[in-house]
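Problem 12. The chain below contains 223 residues. Write out its predicted structure in token notation.
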Amino acid sequence: MTLRLFMNHRKALATLAGATVLALAGAAAAQQAPQKPAGAAPQALPAEWFKVCSTQGENTICNTQYTLIADTRQLITAVNLIDVKGKVNQKVLQAVVPTGRVIPAGVQMKIDGNAPTTLNYSVCFPDRCIAEATLSDAMIASMKKGNDLFVTSINFQRQPNPIKITLTGFSKSYDGPPKAQPELAQRQQELNDALKKQADARRQKFEDAQNAAKAASEAKPAQ
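Solution.
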């Protein structure tokens, strides 16, 4: 692959990743919401496999993806199966994980009890890191037959961080037509509504706790 084609290919993949329905740029909004207690695990919003396609120059790029977002708008894990056809023909498997990872360890991807596949990190952004490998026909076949996909990265404390992703619906999404623009817009609206509902619930819980503490303090007899 020439340098020009390589750069165009990287630009196309970055464009497609940036256009994903579950916009990761919203993560900054989490800083304005009351935080969960230390050690509390973030709750993942409902997710599903779906495919989007776009045309970039002389190439058609389809991405079958699954993205887990926490109710704080933070990325938990995403998986992208990218199929580039046209002047450039290439299939890429991506795992997207939060920052603060041990880079040399890469990301381990395992289907059910099968042997894991290692994806090496290719780039990190302020809010996420991306690991990649060539997407093989054997991997696609295994995902179609499998039940669960386990994506494991190593955090900065050198502890494994395994995430389980269901493979239910994968075959239908991978082999079927891509989502149409109205469907994508509806999915984005549903995500925004769910995030707002979660944020309102957290804020109300935080305010209730503050009011209860204030009432208890005022009711306490003076010493």
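Discussion. The mean pLDDT is 76. Students who got a different answer should revisit the alignment rule from Section 12.3.
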